[in-house]
# Entry
Amino acid sequence: MSELEGRTIVVTGGTGSLGSRLVKKILNEYNPKEIRVFSRSEREQVFMAKRLNDVRCKFIIGDVRDWSSVRNVCLGANIVLHTAAMKHVPICENQPSECILTNIIGTKNVVNAAVEVGVEKMVFVSTDKAASPSNVYGWSKVLGERLVIEGNDMVTGDTELCCVRFGNMLGSQGSVIDLFKNQMEKQGEITVTDPTMTRFFITIDQAVNHILKSIELCRGGEIFIPNMSATSVGTLVEALIGDSDIEIKIIGARPGEKHFEHIISKDERRRVKVVSDSNTIAIMSRWIESDDYYKEPLFGNEMTSLNVPQMDKDEVTALLNEMEKENEKNA
# Structure
């Protein structure tokens, strides 16, 4: 029996790219008792309710910044999946106070509610930008991770809280793919900050599967990371435009952008384990005694988008095709 079957599940940010895909996957494959879609977008909730047309879905307007609404949506829930966040680096750089309210205060509210009402599991969605952060968004996610890990020390019952961390999600709302496609259609050119920059990339469905796997693996305090490949921004653009006669304009890095991303920092390396029989890495914040559950990793001091396998143009094209198939299936 799945840990989701017959359970009541809260998905914060449930109308977003990742949250809505999570909801659909759980409904279709895991037979939950109820899914509470928690978000502040009335418009998106109306559209999503019509698309899904499933009585197991309960749509609740609310904001993670508001403690009372977060606590209320968690009452009687078994599992909380916290995807709500401000995610765009430039916006977080320009409006750090808003980022703090959503990504830090909001996460603290979700953690406190999960612990107070005694849910079974809580999973927080983080980002590779939380490893060796250089911008407001990354720092907000670092503190979010710390708050989730701390939550395990506040538990008096059986609640277990963990994090997941992955790279850029291809095809999510406002993603670089959306930007590039819009520029190609309207301007006939693509603006690139620096084609030599490297990034980790993952499709939305891959991210969903990683989150669902983390529910099963969670024992409290881990940061789970899937094995991911990376590629340069230039290779991504080449795969996207194919043989099209599209001009590429280099505009330089934006404030807060890094040349490459860490997924595991040098300081975190000593706390890393590989989950046995799984394509997953775990950064351990607490000692969990189980020799058959975790094993030593095989990589060096840190894991970055420079020192992992690099996808070539053909591999990136295949990943983009997979993204398109996912989007068509979930339209």
